[in-house]
Design a protein that fits this description.
This protein is α+β, with helices and mostly antiparallel strands and about 190 residues long. The protein contains 4 helices and 7 strands; from the N terminus they run ααβββαββββα. Strands 3-2-1-4-5 form a 5-stranded antiparallel β-sheet, covered by helices on one side. It has a two-stranded antiparallel ribbon with strand order 6-7.
């Protein structure tokens, strides 16, 4: 025996579905998009140095994934660092930075930061998530020149190559930072 569904039932089901979809659209949050990055994230190298309060070269020793996801849709991660060279700020042996997986630009044309794009306003390996927040990612075992404190910029977490377990002294960004902070602090806060 074949059963027929009355057109009134189909019409009511369709109306209920349409009403449900309309309600969902009204209560759903609009999608976030960061069309223009915050000005504080895209500074010049000179501005980066002027704002610096806590700078070190540090090696990533651990990355602990979180069950949470960022506003940019990436998994959050807590990265643990061991300080290799203290440049500015209070002496610390280590620290942790919260970031997220997978948000770096393609590698620069030079690993020693000698490419022109790096030295322009807004240069650096990072860019902001869709919600305009910087969430850096790192590789365990690698070293980075870290500018901690606010505001974080696209150049605050730069990879630094190592030579025989030490930061590469030929890296242009590291050399620039060491020279400028040494000049501004008269050498008093530099620590090997």
């Amino acid at each position: 025996m074949t059963r027929f569904i009355s057109s009134a039932v189909v019409h009511r089901a369709g109306a209920a579905l349409a009403f449900s979809l309309a309600c969902n659209l009204m209560v759903s949050a609009p999608a976030q998009a960061c069309r223009v990055p915050p000005v504080a994230q895209v500074v010049s190298p000179e501005q980066q140095i002027a704002m610096a309060t806590d700078v070190s070269v540090a090696r990533v020793t651990e990355a602990i994934p979180s069950p949470l996801w960022s506003g940019g849709g990436r998994q959050l991660v807590d990265y643990t660092f061991e300080v290799q060279q203290r440049i500015l700020g209070l002496p610390e042996q280590g620290f942790t930075i919260s970031g997220a997986r997978g948000m770096t630009r393609p590698p620069p044309s030079s690993v020693d930061h000698s490419d022109d794009a790096f030295w322009e306003r807004g240069g650096g390996r990072l860019y902001n998530d869709a919600d305009c927040v910087l969430r850096p990612d790192f590789i365990v075992g690698e070293s980075y020149l870290i500018f901690r404190g606010k505001p974080a910029t696209w150049r605050s977490f730069e990879h630094i190559a190592t030579v025989r377990g030490r930061p590469d002294a030929d890296d242009k960004w590291l050399s620039y930072v060491m020279e400028k902070l040494s000049d501004s602090q008269s050498g008093s806060s530099l620590r090997p």
